[in-house]
Records
---
Amino acid sequence: LALKILAKRHDIRALLRYPPAEGWSHHRLDGVQWINTMGLKAEPESVVLAAGAQQGLSLILSAMTKPGDLIMTEALTYPGVKAIAEFLNLKILGIAMDQEGILPEDLEAVCRRRKAKVLFCMPDLHNPTSVILSLKRREALASLARRYDLLIIEDAIHRPFLDDPLPTLAQLAPEHTFFLASVSKSVAAGLRIAFILAPALNLGRLRQAVAALTLYSSSLPFEIFSFWIEHGIVESTIRERKSEIEKRNKLTRKILAKQMLQTHPRSNFLWLTLPPEMKCSRFTLDAYRSGVIVSPADVFAVDDKQCPEAVRICPGAAQDQAVLQKGLKIIEGILAGKKIISAETV
Ligand SMILES: Cc1ncc(COP(=O)(O)O)c(C=O)c1O
């Protein structure tokens, strides 16, 4: 179907050639529209196309750092950034966070002591805790970025799920912030597309990285996205996903009502702090043996020594709500100390 659509669109021959260095202008305009629905006012000249947030992140980090540099993240972070840091030989340091997000005083203490260049963070529906960075903290981070000449990479992958989001860091400190806007969670991960809104001063360097490391993103997925925008498919998909997330999140909270859960009604995941005697590695293994996959805290912890005994539950990963319910009942059983009857023990 996608190929049929593409065959009829614009000049398909042009799309099959190498795209211009900055991407086709109508794709960048889609990026502007996508970014602007999240409350920003992007200009097409500042939008760079990437094959997903992971590629966008590796391009930004390749462009803005060199081996040995120190980057900072929330103490628990998206595992993909840990993987890139390892690959690019970057040091990575976790900044303490609480229910309101990253602690600006901890960030400032690190900036004073060490030569840190970049902060990667997820202010909206932080992965894995679902925390939303408070307005006060956003303002504090923006002012620290200016004071310490820090570059921020703001990962907004879950922002489309929020109805009245707070201002982005890119709005509060535009000259210091790369705004990373993937469509993976809210529209379709398989398209592999994301838009980067880059600070004017760093745009050239980012473009060099795009040219050197990718020779540009494929135009075809961007064209499908374009078609979906035009036909209201992007909007309706987000609406459906929001509603499905709400239902699954609610079901999870209901079944695990007695547990210590941290989440948001519009979050794809719930952060479960385990009862005092339980270890997350053991719990993850027991769940796996019973057919349920959860992500243990060490996957997200930047510092193994400061890893909480918690796991992330991702209700969206279940095939449907019936499967989710079954999986949650298994989790409930393990938490209640039920014995695991696994393929290995039977
Ligand atoms: C917070 C976060 N950022 C980025 C990514 C990667 O996104 P993409 O599929 O656009 O590469 C993920 C994927 O799970 C994620 O959770």
---
Amino acid sequence: MIVTADWVLPVCDPPIRNGAVAVVAGVIADVGTLADVAARRPDDHEVVELPGRIIAPGLVNAHTHLALSVLEGLAPPAPLAEWLGGVAPSVLGLSPEEFGASSALGASHCLRTGTTVVADIVYGASSRSAAADLGVAGAYCWELLGMGADAMDDSLARRGFPLVGEHVEAEDGRTVAGLAPHAPYSAGPGLLKAAHLAARRHGAPLVIHVAESADEVEAIRDGSGPLGRTAERLAAGFSPSGATPVGYLAALGALDDAVCVHVVHVDREDAALLAGRARGAVLCPRSNAWLRNGEPPVRMLREAGVRLGLGTDSSASNDDLDLFAEARTLRALDATLTAGETLWMMTMGGAQLIGMAGSFGGLAPGAQADLVAVRADADDGPVEAFLTGAPETVSDVMAAGLWKVRDHRVCFDIEEIRETARRAREHASALTEAERGKR
Ligand SMILES: [Zn+2]
């Protein structure tokens, strides 16, 4: 099949006017102008024309919690410590099937807005399989918190993490399992080090929420504040470090090759550590605003050379999972961020952070056939025009060579997903109410 549009944005190469992407068995076989691709593939007679549209790689949402999608609207905007208290009963109380239903709902929202790849935090295997079955690829990272290092292997095994002997990467090459010790105030030093070692051993991504709030900075430095009390309860072996959250992780050795999410409350020294030792950082500006955590210092991080991806965080702490909307908020924080740099963060930047840059984030032969087409007028340049994408203008989405959205119509059973998710949401809502009653 050859898919052609007014413009193709390969990301790693310049935009192509009257571009085309050839897809064979779920993989990209060729990219170029329609004339060149058609000439090189005379036997490929199935041509899908997308006039008035711009094609880019399926977007990479580099930080999600798809399993919390049914909580949308249940935990209103509030400071982080308070918000976590509202979400915790559901995280502890939903069944694996309900997490699966919630993840399927989140995955359907991702596909509808052009995201085909995520770096997702999961509580068990059902979330990965539910999202992957719909076609959403990426890293699914098992969350770890509130336990000692000695309990980690059992906890992971109980929750279906593919352990030693199995490969963390799925056979089809579209998903990989990773580890996510939640944050320095909820995972103690022993657990952080054990997770870091295990991630190294498996070749799996390691994702940590870092320097998200001022409360976290205070907790890690001197053990005080609301998250200092959380650390006492959850972070076995933690003692106040006198350091910043980034400095603390670096001293433990857990920063090396880690993906750090949020990094709102960081100074120049932290930024240099992130650039030199971490694999990179994921910015989630709308979630930061929702939880009243301030704004990530986008320009300082870029100037320090930190490798960056963009994420929405969960739809329980954001309006939606639309990465285009997230990108517009990000650009409002840093007027020097170009359209090209923004597109990079939404695609290849995120794919590099999860170690899947050969398969996702760019349109090139051998990569997975994941595409998004946006209806837009390219007068201001094709990349700038692409970034105007919205739920109404994302017209076509392909994952692994299969249409997920075709000419604005969703190609999977969205009603069944909504119905199953509705029941999980009712349970989550009851759990939240019961918790409120206790307070
Ligand atoms: Zn998060």
---
Amino acid sequence: LGGSLPVANRLADPVLELYDETGSLVRINNNWRDSQRAEIAATGHAPSQDTESALLVALGPGRYTAVLLGVDNTVGVGKIDVIDVDATAASRLDNVSSRARVSAGENVLLGGFVINGPQSRKVLIRGIGPSLFYIADAIYDPSLQLRDGSGAPLVFNDNWRDTQETEVIDSALPPGEERESAIVATLRPGSYTAELLGLCGAGGVALVEVYDLGPAGDAHLIPPSSALPRCFSAWLSEHGLAGAQAAPTGDPDGDGILNALEYATGKNPNVSDAPATQHGTVVLNGRRFLSLSYTRPTGTNAPDDVIYSAQRATSLAPANWSSAPTQVTTHSVTPGPGALETVTVRSTTDFGTVRREFLRLQVTLTAP
Ligand SMILES: [Ca+2]
Ligand SMILES: [Ca+2]
Ligand SMILES: [Ca+2]
């Protein structure tokens, strides 16, 4: 589907291709009336626009891939529905997996599915990104929002271990990476949508998957949600920063600490602060090492879109920064709202045995 979708950036003229698991093309369709017009109309599921595509095909057990693309490589928001139209056949749609490029707004990845009655079914929904290591621009941190047929939110999951670690492991299909998402829910008959979003509005290639784990009587079990993500964009608004002042490299208070570092270390972008890192030495087992300390917000204020990387160099010209030789030695937490923890990293080389040694903290924002 394309032209009939209720979004501005819709795919004007979709084409649908169906491949089997060997990668052979089973069938292709541009406009659904081109062939099988009467048969498709008889299912009651014909697309509402002539430029949209449909295939009616009987498939044996196996894995199949449907590819949706635009005529002449046009792009836009599209939708693939897979509908089992023969309720009498013993076949069943077991698992649906959709891959697409995700960005903010309309360009989220939606996995829609329908549970046909009379029984509830237990389902596993997965949001995959970082384990697609063979894709250069896979999404860094996926999250899932499950909605019911009216669009009302049922549960949000950021990382699969957040609330249902045991259930997801018991499904035998835990995601390969900690940042990936999974929801195990038991749902009554009806239509549902799993929405895959990049955390804090980040984009990339992602996969949303729905697995049928079996019938479940008339149960309806929705798991608890993950905590909502803490994002740089919200932090900017809280501090009244907009325009050029809101750039990650902006420094509206002129204290030399750029906004991204103010955010990552829990400082105030509108008040001149002491330096974000403190250097010193730590003594362990009678040996002394160069050390660096910084603070970072904890709990619900812990940033979800920051990568902290402590690095060491033995030369600045040319610079040879490397993240390998340092390690965390202490964490101390100041409790309460706005809680900060102090992180100390140290060199692994005895202090004074190299002519020059430098430590620094690098913070990287993972979302725009
Ligand atoms: Ca995540
Ligand atoms: Ca600043
Ligand atoms: Ca400041």
